[in-house]
Structures are given as C-alpha cells and as structure tokens.
Amino acid sequence: MTYKICETLCILPKTVYNLAQGPLKVKRKHLPNPHKLGIIHLFILYISEDSMANMEMEELLAVARLFKLDSRPLSCVPHGEGHINRTYCVTTEKGTRYIMQKINDHVFPDVKGLMENIEGVTEYLRRTEKDPRRVQTIVRTLEGDTYLRLESGYWRVYVFVEDSVCLQQPEDGRDFYMSAVAFGSFQNQLKDYPAETLHETIPNFHNTVIRYRNFKETLAKDPVGRAAKAQPEIAFALAREADAAVLVDRLAAGILPLKVTHNDTKLNNVMLDEKTHEPLCVIDLDTVMPGLPAYDYGDSIRFGANTAAEDEEDLDKVRFDLDRFRAYTRGFLEACPTLTQAERESLCWGAKLMTLECGVRFLTDYIDGDHYFGVHKPDHNLLRCRTQFKLVAEMEKCWDQMEEIVRSAGAAAASADDAS
C-alpha cells in the first residue's frame, strides 16, 4: 500500500482518532492515544492514496449537494483541460450530468461581479434560444444564488451540455470555420446588450497601451538580468509601440462602439454538436466584459491561423495561414453581419494587435522572471514571444490581402443579410 502525507490538521483529537480508525484507514502504529492528547493537537496523518481519493470525492459530493440538482449526486470526477478553474463532472442517481467548478478567485477576485456578468448574459441569450444546449445554464444553490462561498473557496454548477464535443485542435478546416460562426453569433446576439453594465473581471485586459507600459516598466528594472538575451525581441516590440493605441484611440473617439466581448475565443471554448460538429454554444464566460469585436476576432486568428504550436522552437514552422484566416473571417462575418463598416475595418488590426499584445505579455513575463505564465522548459516565455512576433511579421507582409479578404467577406455577409 502506498501512503502519502496529508496536510497538517488542527482539530479535536478524539474526532481524528475515530476518523483514522474508520474511513481514513490509518496504520495503527501512527495513531496517538486520544487520552494523552490535549484538547487540540497538531499532527500529520499518513493516509493511503485510495483513502485520500475517497475523502476528496466525499468532500466534492458534499459541495454538490448544496446545489439544486435533479437528484442525489453519486460521483464527481475531474473534467476537461482548463488551467484556471478546477472543473469536475457530477453525475446524479438519475444519470444527469453537471459541470461543477471551483472558481479561481486569485485570477478573478471579484467573484460576485463575474457571476453577475455570466447571469446577465446567459439570461439575455436565453430569450431568443429555445434549445437549452445553445446557452450555458447556471444551476442555483439551495439558497437560490448563482454561486456558493465556502471555506474551501467559491463554487458554481452548470448543466452539462449533452451530445456535444469540445475540441482542443480543429480536426479539419470546417471546425475552425464553425468556431467563427459560434463567436460571430455570440457577438451578434449580444449586439444590443448594455455592455457598460458589465463588470471588468480583469481590468484593462486588452488595453494594449497599458500592456506596453507594463512591459517598459519591467524592462527598465530588468529584475533577473534577462533583457540582454532578448534584445531582438525587445527591439521588435518597441518598433511597433505606436500601433498599440490604434484600437483604444478609435474607441475613445467614438469611432468604435463598446460591445460585449468574450475575450478568450479559442476553439476549446465552443461546444460543437457531437455528430454534425455544428456550433451549439460558447462556454467559459469568466472573461465576458465590455470590449471590441476586434478583440474576439483577433484572438481567434492569433490562435487558429498559426500553423505551429504556441511555443514552437523552429520558427520556420510558424506561418500565418491565409486560408484559415479567410475561412474564419467568412464564418465570423456571416454570423455577425450587423458590424458597422468601422468595426469591420478594425478586424485586421484586432488580429495584429491581439497577437502583438500576447507576444509583449510573454516577453514581459520572461524579463520579469516567469511569474505569470506557467513555464515547462528554459526560456519558455521567450519562445512563446518569438512565435507571436513571427506571426505579426507575417501579417504585416500580407496586410493588403488580409484587408481585401475582410472587405469581400463583409460585403457578401451584408448582401446576404439584406436579402433575408
């Protein structure tokens, strides 16, 4: 039997003694005599891995029972590949499945504001959607709230979207197109939502000007002496600093209207029908905030039009795929034909600036000593930065083609919308 150390506990010793003899199955030689202990005693429990798993399951099921499920929860297992929140799949005795999440309140300290955003947006979307699979559905607590606060953290539950699939990478070009339809539809359905009423769950998330300010402040300090190794990347970023203000200036001038944006428009945040791979709904709404359609469009292009991994070391493999760009643009604008001309003209800038901004963030974190993004090998954030800057450079080379693709797709979408 394999044993591992559980965290140090501080509870009544008699209670621990009884637990240890029973469900925790602690080796008897490790058990203290409860009559020789004080009222409260600090000690370490040695628990079998199987027993720890059972204990965690019971704790998770206890949390699940505090929500309005259709029947008693029977199992709770880890689910998905997310890195921010802890996600579990709960199954009840009726066979119904739910998604339960422990919200990361370090990344999202304003949990109340975050859940108000999600509740407002999902209820708004539900007004025009009859299929429950097409809108993420919040399951309320026994007290009727949208989330639960316990000593262990903040918890929430959603209805599981059945007969669906979530892809980490497109299986073919059509999957990328369908993700564009999903995010374009999301944008179109929320075009009249009062974006100014939403909370900024991460303030200035896509304010590229502020991202540059943070970069230059970190560069000036060079806290771990890495700037010398990143001189080509630093020069690349500084040469494009003037571009950083293009979108925020247009927003400030009223040229671009403030809209509801998702702000994390990767393929794996779209639920597709398991059989047809047609989009059902957009998920992971934690970053829903006021913003610009160009942010959502651009982040998708940054992620999906890259031919290589985000941390590819061989930059010859990193290319900006114009065919993928064309497919996504067509799907996005077909699903969202109501964008203004100014908004359509901002889309190419969204693609470039979201990619540039991401590269600057990777570079900032590299110079700062890798405190924000997780790293798994030497110079990991510098490698990530290089792939983003390679994409930016390739976009600049085919800028005229990108703009023509957007113009053509926008005109076709507007014409089809008028005909309908």
Features of this protein?
single chain; 420 residues; alpha+beta; 6-stranded antiparallel β-sheet; 3-stranded antiparallel β-sheet; 13 helices; 14% strand; disordered N terminus
Account of the 3D structure:
With 420 residues, this protein is α+β, with helices and mostly antiparallel strands. It is built from 13 helices and 15 strands. The strands form 5 sheets. Strands 5, 6, 7, 8, 9 and 10 form a 6-stranded antiparallel β-sheet that branches. The protein has a 3-stranded antiparallel β-sheet with strand order 11-13-14, covered by helices on one side. A two-stranded antiparallel ribbon has the order 1-4. It starts with a strand and ends with a helix.
Number of helices: 13
- Specify the helix fraction band: 40-55%
State the total count of DSSP E strands: 15
Strand content: 5-15%
Produce a short descriptive summary.
The chain has 420 residues and is of the alpha+beta class.
How would the blueprint of this fold be written?
Layout: E1 3-5, E2 9-11, H1 13-21, E3 41-43, E4 46-48, H2 49-64, E5 73-78, E6 86-92, E7 97-103, H3 111-126, E8 138-139, E9 148-150, E10 153-159, E11 164-165, H4 173-189, H5 208-221, H6 231-239, H7 246-252, E12 259-261, E13 270-273, E14 279-282, E15 289-291, H8 293-304, H9 322-335, H10 341-345, H11 347-368, H12 380-397, H13 399-419
